[in-house]
Amino acid sequence: MSQVRARMLPMLLEMRVADLGVIEEVSILFGPGLTAVTGETGAGKTLIVGAIELLLGGRADPSIVRPGSDEAVVEGRFLTGDDEVLVRRVVPRDGRSRAYLDGQLATAAALADLGSSLVDLHGQHAHQNLLAGPAQRAALDRFGGVDLAPLHDAVESLAAIDIELESVGGDERARAREIDLLRYQVAELDDAAIEDPDEDDRLAAEAAILADAGAHREAAGAALVLLDGDGPVSEALASALGHLVERPPFSDLADRLAGMGADLADLSASLRVLAETVEEDPARLDEVGERRRLLAEFRRKYGNSLVEVMDYHRDAAERLAGLLDHDARAAVLDAERVAAEAARVEAAGVVRDARRRAAPDLAARIESYLRELAMPTASIGVSVDGEAGDDVVILLAANSGAALLPLSKVASGGELARAMLAVRRVLTASPPTQVFDEVDAGIGGEVAHAVGASLAELATHSQVLVVTHLAQVAAYAHSQVTVTKRDDGEMTVATATVLGDDERVVELSRMLSGSPESGTAQDHAVELLAAASASREA
Questions:
Q1: How far apart are CA 379 and CA 66, in angstroms?
Q2: Interval 120-167: pLDDT, tens
Q3: At what angle do helices 172-192 and 306-324 cross, to 10 degrees?
Q4: Please, what is the Cα angle at 435 between 453 and 427, to 5 degrees?
Q5: What does DSSP say about strands 463-467 and 433-437: parallel, antiparallel, or unpaired?
Q6: CB distance 123 to 58 below 8 Å
Q7: What is the 3 state secondary structure string of 388-413?
Q8: CATH for 11-124+412-537, among 3.40.50.300, 3.40.50.150, 3.30.70.20, 3.40.50.11890?
Q9: CA 43 distance to own-chain centroid
Q10: Between 20 and 30 A from 87 (CA), which of 191, 316, 401, 428?
């Protein structure tokens, strides 16, 4: 077996538990590879698993709060890729539990969502990702190397055709209603012949002139009286020029006065011409007003500006043309859909057959591992049903003559945990952290060695945590955490400690003989550790 990697990503890095059951407060640093959680019965080992389950959005029962405390708190630090994620769960004695992700309030469902990609729990009453049907189907596909790409492509092609059929009017009545509406809209927009996006501004300026044409002409006439011919202004300029002409000091000013006179004459001529163009035209004024009212109505119906109205006109005409061409296009699409559906059915059959071919091999591989895990008469089946074989169920009969049942219906926590261990041995692609509780239930001796070796093998590509009573299993761990409790007569308090090498020998001695100080048991413990280390390195 290969050595555990020095750094494994992602993984559970650290967990803090406060006021949970008999635990007052513990903090545990976790490393890669296999970590064994050990301790005497009732010390609180399973509470460590329960704490992890809370971090994964598990049910929070207020009864787990330590007596005398107002709330239980569990915090976990996970490494995911290059980032760390901080998860916190607070369970009050009264009221609803609270969840936090990176310091922000979250729902238990959000924790469960994240947790399903990070951790699998295996054991009685624990959440197991692999018990879900989609996970078992994905597991079979990975094991059998089932190529799903052609089926995915066929499904996507069929969906695209259905979308296009809907877009050209899949419902005949709805299509007829839309055609009638578009015909009316396009016809009235055609009749309006809007070609200039600035037409309304231009018409507004024209209406302003027409509405006051008489007053405009009167104002121009009055101005001409003052400016033209012998008007007061012209008379004043001529008189001033007469005084200054041939007066050398004022020659420049005299020239300027002469120029002003010429400009005045030109201005008067322009004013006379322009005034003549301003005529009262009530009919044209009505025409402009009606056109402006029409444009305003179109802006109300089709867009906020004439540009948007013109864009709608173009789009509506194109949509109408497409709908009127529906029969021809629909016939083409219908033929394409028949072909696409046939391709999908064929691809589904190929996937189903591939899954059914892989199922017996997967079952046999899992069974072979169960033989090593004290389940010599266990049988595994893999059921594959559905058009594409989508309904995949892994079945287990723990004993000879027992009916094959889905893993989710297996009653024994120990049997289920071992079955999950066997499955995980076969399927390396899984959440990065695996937690096993009760995996050693009802076993011992060489079988326990096999369980430990299996866990160590799994730990070459996953972080694995196992709660165990067996020294043979714990010896295979890369690190060991022991849970102890003390009772002062008033309160029981549990603590958790990461053990050093010498401390592991003492703890394994206790697990072997009940006597931590037994020299014989300690010698045996040293042998177990050496044998397990050699097995991992083999």
A1: 42
A2: 887 655 546 667 788 889 889 988 899 999 999 999 999 998 888 777
A3: 140
A4: 65
A5: parallel
A6: no
A7: CCCEEEEEEECCCCCCCEEHHHCCCH
A8: 3.40.50.300
A9: 41
A10: 428
